[in-house]
Every structure is written in structure tokens, then in C-alpha cells.
Write a structure and sequence with these properties.
The protein is α/β, with parallel strands linked by helices and 450 residues long. The protein folds into 2 domains: 224 residues, ATPase, nucleotide binding domain (Nucleotidyltransferase, domain 5, 2-Layer Sandwich), CATH 3.30.420; 222 residues, ATPase, nucleotide binding domain (Nucleotidyltransferase, domain 5, 2-Layer Sandwich). The protein is 32% helix and 22% strand. Strands 1, 2, 3, 6, 11, 12 and 13 form a 7-stranded mixed β-sheet that branches. Strands 16-17-15-14-18-19-20 form a 7-stranded mixed β-sheet, with helices on both faces. The protein has a two-stranded antiparallel ribbon with strand order 4-5. The termini are far apart.
């Protein structure tokens, strides 16, 4: 008897995956692909969308005819800040432009001036001014630099919905894709920002992310979801828990701190400190902050390893020593060894005096003390004045770092701090959305202790 599965296409910037979940949300198959990037017409690197489209269609057909699996449903989760443009015949007009592609700063300036100035516009849309990363500004860019293409646009789709479209032929948008620093959504009024109508962009009214379409592929019926933004998707499994309100600390190259239970409006000061809003699957704002944690850790760690002539993974053998951490805090008394001083500075010093330390262990504990201060400053940005969150969930690479665990346990003694070992969290969230399941999942939680 074939095993019933949900197929999730998890499209990251580096890796593209097909993850199959059974009815108990256990992974029964995972296939990972890497596609070489191509160059757009301006010579800037971008995803090879034609290759991705072909891969999705061919792999889906194979799944339909699998001897092992019965395909129940399909969904898509992708990175954000990416739009696709269709003409009146539903044909894609451009490459999938890279959100790191430069944009002339003059393009959004008139928009800012017309709608309260840059700070107010960015605050109201919960979108720091990030150029092409504000995907809602990409059509303005296209209108400015490629008017002949812009004039052919009939529909504008976010990337997750475009991948669903190539299978269903249906045009949709949903809140999680609109709400990720796109500059499209007015978080004060929870609707599209008025500038959209001023410029005459044809954007669809958002529908619930659970929306499904039944299609027939080679004679077999399949339910197809409309896609979801990956950051919002990674939150979905935690909403299934009955453990109370929570903060999610997703760690890796970036440390992304998400609070789905902060109802305070974003302030200009928070925005200046790299704080913004996503939207959850429940169509509510998710206040979020970020820190380049993994990158900072890696850069500083290399200097420590070079000085003390240790291997790059030696730090994994260094257990957290609270007495040593406290001694170093007393010794340096607020002085930073690794990072520059100044309001909300996050940069490493040009020169770091390693002779402040007699051992690798001392240097690493001080590094984690300073990284801890930066991390807590970022996390505190998403904690409201009236804080009802009970739990903190730490996922990703730093969830295995007991220095990092201790940091949170000591800083938030009134909260329960857990590490969570969910793998493929974005794919799992996308599967839950299309399954309709409300059951609680095993989040792989381990309580952190000081």
C-alpha cells in the first residue's frame, strides 16, 4: 500500500528541496538540488527560473506516478523579496531578479516624499529602506529602467504564488508574502498602502494562506496550495503547541528574533535598529529583529583561533563556565574587547588585542559575553512593555551552543527557555498549512538550564 504524502518545494537562495511528509508530519523523503545561477539581461546573477520550473514540473509528474507514495497535496515555501511579472497571456516577462541587485536611490525618493517622508513611510510599512529587498519597489524600478517591459505587465505575483501558478494557472497573493519588508502593506491600517493605487499596480487582494486548488495531473487529483513565505512558514509549527505564547530565536548566519504576540506598532527607533514586521499565517503582525550573529561569531572566532593556534572547531569543546563569564564581566566592566563602542554598534574592532587573554577559553567566553549583549539588545526590541510571552524557543546552529543557551536562561529567568530540534521548519510549516491539521506537533523541545 502506498504511503500518503504531502510534497513541499522548499526554495532557498542556495538549495532547492523537495521534502515529503507523511500524515504524521514525519519526513519520509528529502531531495536537495543546487542550480547554478545565471545572469539577467544586465549581467547580474539571479536564479535560473526556467530550470526551476522544469524541475518542479518533472519531479511532480514522477511523484504522481510513484510506486511508493500517494501524493495527497503540494505546497511551496520560498525566500521573499522576489516578484514575478506576467503579461496578459499569463506569460512570465522577466528573469526572477535578485533582491541584491542595486537600485538607484532616487527611484523610491519621490515615493517617500509623497507619503510622509522616508522614516514615516518605512515605519508605516514596517520596511527598512533596503532597495530591491523592498520588493514592492521593484515594479517602480522596472518602470524607471525598462518601461517597455513594465507596460506589458498584467499581473504581479510573489515568488511562492508564482510557483503555485505554474502548476494551477491560478493568480493569488497572501499575507505572509506581502508582509515581509515589501513596502506594500500599511501595518497601521492592515491593508495595502495607498501608494499602490496611486501607481496603478495590479495586485490581488490577499486570500487565506490555507487556500487550495484541486487540479488533475495525468488523470490524478492533487490538492495544491498557494505558497507561503519561508520565515512565516517556520513559525507555523510553534502555533500548533499548547505551551503558551512564545518568542522564536532562529539562529544561523543571521539570528532572527520573532514575536508573534507583540501588538505594539513599530517605532522609527526600532526601525533604525533593524527591526521590522512579518505577518503570520494568522494574518497578524510578527515583530522581528535581526543580528548578523553567525557571521560575527565566525569572523571573531577565526582571530581567536589564529592567536591561540587552535582548530576552527575547538570552541565546541569549551563548556560554558558561569564563574569565568562573571569574572570577565567584572574585569572589563563594560569595556568591549571585540566590538566597537557606540550607540547600537555591531561592528568588530579594526584591532583586537588578544593579549588581554591568557587562554582560548578566556577569549571565547568574552566573545560570547559581548555577542550575548548584542543578541539581547536585538531580542529586547521585539519584547513589548506588557510582555505575556512565557517561552523562548531557540532553533538553528546556536541552539547547540551551551554558552548561548545560558545567555537566555540567565537573561530571562521568568521565561522557560527551550532548544527545538525541528528540521526543515519552513517546509513543515508549509505542509501543516495545506493539511488542515490543528493537532499539536512534537517540537523536539529540551529545557535549558543555567
Amino acid at each position: 500500500m502506498k504511503e500518503r504524502v504531502i510534497a513541499i518545494y522548499d526554495i532557498g537562495k542556495t538549495n532547492k528541496k523537495i521534502v515529503l511528509f507523511n500524515e504524521d508530519f514525519k519526513i519520509v523523503s528529502e531531495i536537495e538540488e543546487k542550480f547554478a545561477e545565471i545572469l539577467d539581461e544586465d549581467g547580474f546573477e539571479c536564479d535560473d527560473i526556467e530550470h526551476i520550473e522544469l524541475w518542479i514540473k518533472e519531479s511532480l509528474t514522477k511523484l504522481i506516478h510513484s510506486d511508493k507514495f500517494e501524493l495527497k497535496a503540494v505546497n511551496f515555501t520560498t525566500y521573499g523579496a522576489t516578484l514575478v511579472y506576467l503579461d496578459e497571456n499569463g506569460k512570465r516577462l522577466t528573469p526572477v531578479y535578485n533582491y541584491l541587485k542595486p537600485m538607484d536611490e532616487k527611484i523610491p525618493e519621490s515615493l517617500y516624499k509623497r507619503h510622509g517622508g522616508r522614516d514615516e513611510f518605512c515605519r508605516r510599512t514596517a520596511s527598512p529602506a533596503l532597495g530591491m529587498l523592498n520588493s514592492g519597489l521593484q515594479p517602480l524600478w522596472l518602470k524607471s529602467v525598462k518601461p517597455e517591459v513594465f507596460n506589458k505587465i498584467k499581473y504581479i505575483l510573489h515568488f511562492p504564488q508564482y510557483l503555485s501558478y505554474i502548476i494551477t494557472g491560478k493568480i493569488y497573493t497572501e499575507h505572509t508574502s506581502i508582509g515581509c519588508h515589501t513596502a506594500l502593506w500599511d501595518f497601521d491600517n492592515m491593508n495595502y498602502h495607498p501608494w499602490i493605487k496611486v501607481h496603478g499596480f495590479n495586485l490581488q487582494d490577499p486570500v487565506p494562506v490555507e487556500t487550495m486548488n484541486e487540479i488533475i495531473i495525468d488523470g490524478k487529483k492533487v490538492q495544491v496550495g498557494i505558497g507561503i513565505h519561508d520565515s512565516s512558514s517556520s513559525l507555523a509549527p510553534y502555533f500548533s503547541s499548547n505551551e503558551g505564547k512564545f518568542l522564536l530565536i532562529s539562529t544561523g548566519t543571521w539570528c532572527i528574533n520573532m514575536n508573534p504576540f507583540n501588538t505594539e506598532k513599530l517605532t522609527a527607533d526600532q526601525l533604525d535598529k533593524d527591526c521590522l514586521c512579518y505577518m503570520s499565517i494568522t494574518r497578524q503582525p510578527v515583530k522581528s529583529s535581526r543580528l548578523f550573529l553567525g557571521n560575527l561569531h565566525e569572523s571573531a572566532l577565526k582571530l581567536v583561533c589564529d592567536h591561540f593556534r587552535k582548530s576552527e572547531d575547538y570552541y565546541k569543546k569549551v563548556k560554558a563556565d558561569n564563574r569565568l563569564s562573571d569574572f570577565l564581566k567584572s574585569k572589563f566592566n563594560g569595556k568591549k574587547v571585540f566590538f566597537q563602542t557606540g550607540p547600537y554598534s555591531r561592528d568588530l574592532k579594526d584591532y583586537i588585542d588578544m593579549y588581554e587573554f591568557s587562554t582560548f577559553e578566556e577569549a571565547y567566553h568574552q566573545l560570547m559575553n559581548e555577542l550575548g549583549d548584542l543578541t539581547l539588545a536585538a531580542v529586547n526590541l521585539v519584547i513589548p512593555e506588557i510582555d505575556e510571552t512565557e517561552n523562548i524557543y531557540i532553533t538553528g546552529g546556536f541552539s547547540k551552543n551551551n554558552h548561548f543557551q545560558n545567555l537566555f536562561s540567565k537573561a530571562y529567568p521568568s521565561k522557560s527557555v527551550y532548544t527545538s530540534e525541528i528540521t526543515n521548519g519552513s517546509a513543515l510549516g508549509a505542509a501543516m498549512v495545506v493539511s488542515g491539521s490543528k493537532s499539536s506537533l512534537n517540537l523536539g523541545l529540551t529545557r535549558c538550564k543555567i
